[in-house]
């Protein structure tokens, strides 16, 4: 196993394991010091409070790809059909108000992931379509939640992340198709907010897994989950792998930096497509893994996602 250049001992443990079918979208709220994440396929939103160890969950009316805590403290969630304002009720239900629609009324298109930047903008992505007609799209929502399209042509778009100086956007093609290889792409963000000079930064040909969600640290490194694998990988901003951390969970989907110093990684995982033998080898699959001691610190955002 490769470790970070600090030489510290890395420690991992399972924070909680609700058996998520598709655990995704971990989001740290620095104001409440709580962790949020979703189970996309089970229409669930989760919240964990490290202070008392309590985990709560809510049932959403649709599949839910992500939840973000806005600078004003309110919640916005990416349901299957589009972006919604949401309220997490005391009776474990969710009250929602539609903001827009992104699925075009197609069954195969849904929100899949998102991140919130330091200026309160939401960068979100969808998946869907076919290899011949990929419909996965990246959107940017301004603080007033007006939406603009920034990239398209993905089959399974995943884990958008920004460089610490917000000059570059990292996008992920999880599945690959004839016109876009599986891997991580980097684009320069122009002053107008458009993307240019896109290139494949991290090709995934050397791995048997698929690249999943990505989050950046304050040094500009990229921390990447791998679907159909148990390794959390770290790459430099130049695309070189600098660390790999095997976890006790299969289908490692995404990490988020959290804790008071943003020095812990909270990593989600998924039980979908996992047989009994794999679950026996990786018993924390479907749970959230805490990684400490990497020496990495999360980049400061409006909410650390």
In short:
This protein is mainly beta and 305 residues long. It has one helix at 276-281, and strands at residues 11-16, 23-29, 34-39, 44-49, 54-59, 64-69, 75-79, 83-88, 94-98, 110-116, 122-127, 136-141, 147-154, 157-162, 168-173, 183-189, 195-203, 210-216, 222-227, 231-235, 241-246, 252-258, 264-269, 288-292.
The percent range for helix content is: under 10%
**What is the CATH homologous superfamily assignment?**
TolB, C-terminal domain
Query: What's the level 1 CATH class?
Result: Mainly Beta
State the end-to-end distance. Answer: 26 Å
| Secondary-structure element order, N to C | EEEEEEEEEEEEEEEEEEEEEEEHE
Number of helices: 1
Unreliable stretches covering 5 or more consecutive residues = 1-7
Give average pLDDT, whole number: 95
- Indicate the proportion of strand residues: over 45%
Enumerate the strands of the largest sheet in spatial order, edge to edge or round the barrel: 1-24-23-22
Q: Give the count of structural domains.
A: 1
Main structural class: mainly beta
Global geometry? globular
Under CATH, the topology can be stated as Neuraminidase
- As a whole number of angstroms, the C-alpha radius of gyration is 17 Å
Instruction: Describe the sheet with the most strands.
Output: 4 strands, antiparallel
Second rung of CATH, namely the architecture: 6 Propeller
Explain the overall architecture.
By secondary structure, the protein is mainly β. The chain has one domain: TolB, C-terminal domain (Neuraminidase, 6 Propeller), CATH 2.120.10. 2% of the residues lie in helices and 49% in strands. The chain has one helix at residues 276-281; strands spanning 11-16, 23-29, 34-39, 44-49, 54-59, 64-69, 75-79, 83-88, 94-98, 110-116, 122-127, 136-141, 147-154, 157-162, 168-173, 183-189, 195-203, 210-216, 222-227, 231-235, 241-246, 252-258, 264-269, 288-292. It has a four-stranded antiparallel sheet, with no helix packed on it. A four-stranded antiparallel sheet has the order 2-3-4-5, with no helix packed on it. A four-stranded antiparallel sheet has the order 6-7-8-9, with no helix packed on it. A hairpin with a 5-residue loop joins strand 18 (210-216) and strand 19. The chain starts with 10 loop residues before the first strand and ends in a 13-residue tail after the last strand. The model is unreliable at 1-7 (pLDDT under 50).
């Amino acid at each position: 196993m490769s470790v970070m250049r600090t030489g510290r001992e890395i420690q991992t443990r399972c924070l909680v394991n609700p058996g998520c079918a598709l655990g995704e979208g971990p989001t740290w709220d620095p104001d409440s010091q709580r962790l949020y994440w979703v189970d996309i396929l089970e229409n669930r939103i989760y919240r964990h409070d490290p202070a008392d160890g309590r985990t709560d969950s809510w049932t959403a009316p649709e599949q839910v790809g992500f939840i973000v805590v806005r600078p004003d403290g309110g919640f916005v969630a990416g349901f299957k059909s589009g972006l919604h304002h949401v309220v997490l009720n005391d009776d474990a239900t969710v009250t929602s108000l539609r903001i827009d629609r992104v699925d075009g009324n197609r069954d195969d298109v849904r929100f899949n992931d998102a991140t919130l930047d330091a200026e309160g903008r939401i960068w979100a992505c969808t998946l869907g379509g076919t290899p011949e007609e990929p419909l996965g799209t990246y959107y940017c929502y301004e603080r007033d939640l007006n939406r603009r399209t920034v990239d398209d042509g993905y089959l399974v778009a995943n884990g958008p992340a920004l460089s610490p100086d917000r000059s570059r956007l990292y996008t992920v093609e999880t599945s690959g198709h004839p016109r876009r290889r599986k891997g991580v792409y980097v684009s320069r963000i122009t002053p107008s907010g458009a993307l240019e000079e896109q290139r494949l930064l991290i090709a995934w040909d050397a791995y048997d897994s698929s690249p999943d969600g990505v989050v950046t640290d304050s040094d500009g490194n990229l921390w990447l989950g791998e679907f159909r694998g148990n390794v959390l990988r770290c790459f430099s901003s130049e695309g070189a792998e600098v660390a790999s951390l095997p976890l006790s969970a299969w289908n490692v989907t995404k990490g988020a930096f959290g804790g008071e110093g943003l020095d812990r990684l909270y990593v989600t995982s998924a039980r979908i497509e996992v047989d009994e033998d794999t679950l026996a080898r990786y018993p924390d699959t479907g749970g959230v893994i805490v990684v400490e001691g990497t020496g990495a610190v999360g980049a400061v955002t409006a909410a650390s996602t």
